[in-house]
Specification:
The chain is α/β, with parallel strands linked by helices and 483 residues long. It folds into 4 domains: 139 residues, Rossmann fold (3-Layer(aba) Sandwich), CATH 3.40.50; 176 residues, 3-Layer(aba) Sandwich (Rossmann fold), CATH 3.40.50.300; 85 residues; 40 residues. Helix content is 42%, strand content 14%. The strands form 3 sheets. A 7-stranded mixed β-sheet has the order 3-4-2-1-5-6-7, with helices on both faces. Helix 12 packs across helix 14, helix 16 crosses helix 17 and helix 17 packs across helix 18. The protein is globular and about 85 Å long. The C terminus is likely disordered.
Length: 483
């Protein structure tokens, strides 16, 4: 592996130009830090003339389009999207001079540092010119605030192969969901319920964000749909020797195994009813007390409880024991589907690509093209992250083509063919949950009846229902011009 160059990152100083940069490099050299590369941030509208080499360091201009250099949010977004990807792998080799630029630019460096968005070991510096000595000194900025964002970014660096959600989402829907998740996950002792369609990454969120926020490394995941109803109680709560026929030895159970960590009940609606009733006691008791099968004594366990379901809250209420639902639904978060988070899809795609990449001849950075961008923007992505995973492996399968753009197009054709077949199968009964499909069917029935009988009144008469009901099913009101 080639050695990473020592990089200095800074804004262009509007009044003093390159002089500030020269003095910063010299001052760092006095501290035995030899800068080899400079990423020099400049506003496009005010492009200065900068030499290619300054004090022996190669200068790379980074054009950052800003209408107003005092707007924190605009600076933050531009630096995240244009600058941070260029220093992603500079662990221990990145230095940032926070002094040049506007006060808003200074603040953004501190925010990024506190949020853990900078590479591991990145050092902030403050350079000051002394009129008395006519020298520039540079001092380290010690700003060691630890936030939950910093912890999550740290996890992502420890596990670079995992497609971990970027916690600083760009879309409003995902940002709201993650803000709620961050707030709720830090409530110790309260069950947490995570809802979302299949493929929205609920399990990965538990493994990364939730585990980090709760400070629990151990996670015992229980896929509830795979539990045998006859053995579910024994598996969850354990049993004593001789508790039932075949219980030749004592069993601890998954609750005890999760002690000191998190018990994650995935697709909790699939739990057998008898196990649901036994869990009510665990959920309502702060001591997490329960009785192993065949035991006459209760035991307690230190465990955080997290549940997940692909059903909306209204349907989950119908599937779960009423008492259990009441206890696990106090803190619930719905992870939005990808189609509601279009602004985040490019970042999701890059994460999924890195996780799927297994061959050295494949690029580390995900391919990106106009066709690919258009496809991801227009697709409904019913499988969410699983659709991106399928596309990634298809791109990898077609990568051997001499023409890489041709290979991507071939992968997109295969991906769209698969999605079309899936859509055709789903459309027989609509898409989504039971409630979604009922609404879909009623709308189709209403439109069919209108076309068949000519008017809404005649259609309502034929179906023996109220005309207003039929119009509502079709999503129309009486005054609607399309009626």
């Amino acid at each position: 592996m080639s050695r990473q160059m020592v990089t200095l990152l800074c804004w262009h100083a509007e009044r003093t130009g390159v002089e500030v940069l020269e003095q910063a490099i010299k001052s760092l050299r006095n501290r035995k830090i030899r800068i080899e590369r400079v990423l020099y941030l400049v506003q496009v509208a005010r492009m200065p003339k900068i030499p290619d080499i300054v004090e022996g360091a190669k200068v790379e201009l980074v054009e950052v389009p800003l209408d107003d250099p005092t707007q924190h949010a605009a600076i933050y977004e531009q630096v995240r999207s244009l600058v941070l990807p260029r220093v992603r792998d500079d662990d221990g080799n990145l230095h940032i001079n926070v002094s040049p630029g506007t006060p808003a630019m200074h603040s953004v460096w501190l925010i990024l540092h506190a949020g853990g968005a900078l590479p591991e070991g990145a050092q902030l510096w403050s350079s000051q010119y002394s009129r008395e000595t006519k020298r520039t000194r540079i001092d380290p900025v010690n700003f060691s605030i630890t936030t939950y964002l910093a912890e999550i970014h740290r996890f992502a660096r420890i596990e670079p192969g995992l497609a971990v959600y970027e916690p600083q989402a760009r879309s409003a829907a995902r940002r709201t969901a993650f803000e709620h998740l961050a707030r709720y996950a830090r409530v110790i002792g309260a069950p947490l319920l995570i809802l979302g369609e299949r493929g929205t990454g609920k399990t990965r969120l538990v493994e990364t964000m939730v585990a980090t926020l709760k400070g629990r490394k151990k996670i015992v995941a229980v896929p509830c749909g795979g539990l045998d109803s006859a053995l579910a109680e024994s598996l969850l709560f354990g049993h004593r020797k001789g508790a039932f026929t075949g219980a030749a030895a004592e069993r601890r159970g998954l609750l005890a195994e999760a002690g000191g960590g998190i018990l994650f009940l995935d697709e909790v609606q699939d739990l057998p009813k008898s196990a649901q009733r036994m869990l009510v006691r665990v959920f309502q008791d702060r001591q997490r007390r329960y009785r192993p099968v065949g035991s006459d004594r209760e035991v307690s366990v230190d465990v955080e409880l997290v549940c997940a379901s692909n059903l909306p809250l209204t349907e989950l209420r119908e599937r779960l024991d009423a008492d259990l639902f009441d206890r696990l639904s106090h803190l619930s978060v719905t992870v939005p589907p990808l189609r509601e988070c279009r602004e985040d899809i490019e970042q999701d795609w890059r994460q999924v690509w890195r996780e799927s990449r297994q061959r050295e001849d494949l690029p580390e950075d995900a391919p990106w093209s106009r066709d690919l961008e258009q496809t991801l923007r227009d697709s409904a992505l019913p499988g969410n992250l699983r659709d991106l995973q399928r596309l990634a492996v298809l791109c990898m399968a077609w990568w051997s083509s001499p023409d890489l753009s041709k290979g991507i197009r071939a992968a997109l054709v295969e991906w769209q063919r698969f999605n079309s077949a899936q859509k055709h199968e789903r459309n027989a009964l609509g898409d989504g949950s039971r409630t979604d499909r009922i609404h879909w069917f009623r709308a189709r029935l209403a439109q069919w009846a209108k076309e068949q009988y000519g008017t809404w009144a005649a259609a309502a008469d034929a179906l023996r229902c109220d005309e207003k009901t039929l119009r509502q099913d079709a999503g129309l009101s009486r005054g609607d011009p399309s009626a």
